[in-house]
Specification:
This is NAD-binding oxidoreductase. It comes from Archangium minus. It holds the Pfam family NAD_binding_1. By secondary structure, the chain is α/β, with parallel strands linked by helices. It folds into 2 domains: 88 residues, Translation factors (Elongation Factor Tu (Ef-tu), domain 3), CATH 2.40.30; 126 residues, Rossmann fold, CATH 3.40.50. The chain is built from 4 helices and 12 strands. The chain has a 6-stranded antiparallel beta sheet. Strands 10-9-8-7-11-12 form a 6-stranded parallel beta sheet, sandwiched between helices. The longest helix has 13 residues.
């Protein structure tokens, strides 16, 4: 049974085609300081719309008062959350799930894989790494989207690259967009990347996650070095 706490909508912003950023203010609630591991999720609920599970896109902050989420429409709850105005109330649980074991990546190379709204959990990892970048080796993000306009956090990519996080983007359905970058699934673009002394985190659709795991294991990365956030 969830321990619900009322939070306040601080902002609702378009994030990409089919994706919306929701920012909740948790200030003054027992939720402050409860997000401890990147990759965790919370349950959000609205009267009459039920509850759902949403990954935290913001990094853990001991005294932070804002939680960020990336919402994909398609359910009554998500569709209603997307339409809320600042000041509206949303019930939230405490963070749940094991998240990503970031301490295991310290001093090692880190391979990150995300597709679609799965970038939310990986963004939490990246923002955590940026706070202490020198503690990690080479960091590479393989980021896939269906179309070129479906990449969330596009305006943040240059910040990530400035922190020496390599970003490899690929589009699975470019259509007539004129996209000049990589095409296909993220796991097909590993190139010559070394998996020696590496750790991998993946979040996205189950077929992508399985494809990534298979590709990495073929290269010799043991299954125990590949982590999911659930």
């Amino acid at each position: 049974m969830n321990d619900w706490h009322p939070t306040t909508v601080a902002d609702v912003l378009p994030a990409a085609d089919g994706l919306t950023e929701l920012v909740l203010d948790i200030g003054g609630t027992p939720l402050v300081g409860t997000h401890r591991t990147p990759g965790q999720y919370v349950r959000l609920a609205l009267p009459e719309k039920g509850e759902g599970m949403f990954a935290l896109a913001s990094p853990p902050e001991p005294f932070g008062t804002r939680w960020e989420f990336l919402l994909k429409g398609g359910s009554p709850l998500a569709d209603t959350l997307i339409q809320l105005q600042p000041g509206a109330k949303v019930n939230s649980s405490r963070p749940q799930g094991r998240g990503f074991p970031l301490p295991l990546a310290r001093g090692r190379n880190l391979l990150l894989f995300a597709t679609g709204s799965g970038i939310s959990s990986i963004r939490s990892v990246i923002e955590s790494i940026r706070q202490e970048r020198s503690a990690y080796g080479e960091v590479t993000l393989y980021f896939g989207a269906r179309t070129p306009k479906a990449f969330a956090y596009e305006d943040e990519l240059h910040h990530w690259e400035a922190a020496h996080i390599r970003v490899v983007r690929t589009v699975s359905q470019p259509g007539e967009s004129g996209w000049q970058g990589l095409i296909g699934y993220v796991q097909t673009h590993l190139g010559e990347v070394s998996v020696e002394d590496a750790v991998a985190f993946a979040c996205g659709q189950s077929a992508m996650v399985q494809g990534v795991m298979d590709a990495l294991r073929l290269r010799g990365l043991p299954r125990e070095a590949i982590h999911l956030n659930y």
